[in-house]
Amino acid sequence: MVIKVFLASSSGSTAIKKKQQDVLGFLEALKIEYAQLDIASNEENRMWMRENVPGDKKPSGGIPLPPQIFNEDNYCGDYETFFDAKEDNSVYEFLGLNPPPGFKKMPYAEEEEQEGDVEEEYEQGEEDLMSEEEEELRQLEEEEEAQVSEEGEEAED
């Protein structure tokens, strides 16, 4: 069974790049075999991913953003569900894999003790990602406004 991670090699969004790296880095750390399938340079990969993400898992815009994770043809989830599985120490279940011999799920009490620190770090990371996305959106809007005003000036001339 091969885990397929659909990603965009040429994404302009730093938030998407960070999410993709987080997924790949975690899979590598666990020594889980995976295949990277680029949706930016391969139309076939893009279409397959879009067609195979279940309808109830697609965002309101209808187009799922990378990274999207599959086990062969079975949809596992997106970054948010992956992150939740990682936090719950249930990545193997999320991926539909059997844990390696000797793998022990952390007892719930220990998990609760460590969760406070992780949540604080996660919340700060989320705030950083949101502010980066907002900054990128603001820059795009400014560029569009500048372009529109340039076109308006050219039309007046």
UniProtKB/TrEMBL annotation:
Gene Ontology cellular component annotations, sorted alphabetically: cytoplasm
Region (Disordered): 100-157
Pfam families membership: SH3BGR
Cross-referenced InterPro entries: Glut_rich_SH3-bd (IPR006993), SH3BGR (IPR051033), Thioredoxin-like_sf (IPR036249)
Positions with biased composition (Acidic residues): 109-157
Recorded coiled-coil stretches: none
Family in the record: Belongs to the SH3BGR family.
Cited PANTHER family: SH3 DOMAIN-BINDING GLUTAMIC ACID-RICH PROTEIN, SH3 DOMAIN-BINDING GLUTAMIC ACID-RICH-LIKE PROTEIN
Protein name as catalogued: SH3 domain-binding glutamic acid-rich protein isoform X13
Organism the protein comes from: Ictalurus punctatus (Channel catfish)
Gene name for this UniProt entry: sh3bgr
